[in-house]
Amino acid sequence: MGSDLRGDTANGSAVHTAEFIVSSARLTELYECAVLLRRTRVRAEEIVDEARALVAEARQHGDTERALLLEDQLEQAHARYRQVLKAYLVLCRRINEERQDILRVQVERDRMSGLSGVA
């Protein structure tokens, strides 16, 4: 005899509870990814700033060849920074969507159970 996931619990059906747990876990994972990407974004920004400073230093010393090489590396660093920033923004958008989905489901469940939403 298996468990009945469609049976009622004190706060709604077991299926709704399981869906909420899965959604919450997914949201937690997204937050953890965002923390890592935020750190990566900050470090990428630091690398771009360091590369920019090296280019300025090479120009100041009149080392044109080195400045050109460093400018190329600066552009590569900046392109990688843009990629990280884009990924971070996409992830933040996904976190917001996931949060809204969880809230929407909770409001619908509360409305179906007869709660007005006013405390």
Write the layout of secondary structure elements.
Layout: E1 8-9, E2 12-13, H1 14-60, H2 64-112
Antiparallel strand pairs: 1-2
Helix pairs in contact: 1-2
Q: How would you characterize the overall build of this protein?
A:
81% of the residues lie in helices and 3% in strands. β1 and β2 form a beta hairpin. It is mainly α and 119 residues long. The chain has two helices and two strands. α1 (14-60) runs antiparallel to α2 (64-112). Residues 1-9 have low confidence and may be disordered. It is rod-shaped and about 75 Å long.
What descriptive keywords fit this protein?
mainly alpha, 119 residues, disordered N terminus, 2 helices, 3% strand, two-stranded antiparallel sheet
Major β-sheet annotation = 2 strands, antiparallel
Number of strands: 2
- Structural class, by secondary structure, is mainly alpha
Helix content: over 70%
List the secondary-structure elements in sequence, H or E: EEHH
In the predicted model, the low-confidence regions spanning at least 5 consecutive residues are 1-9
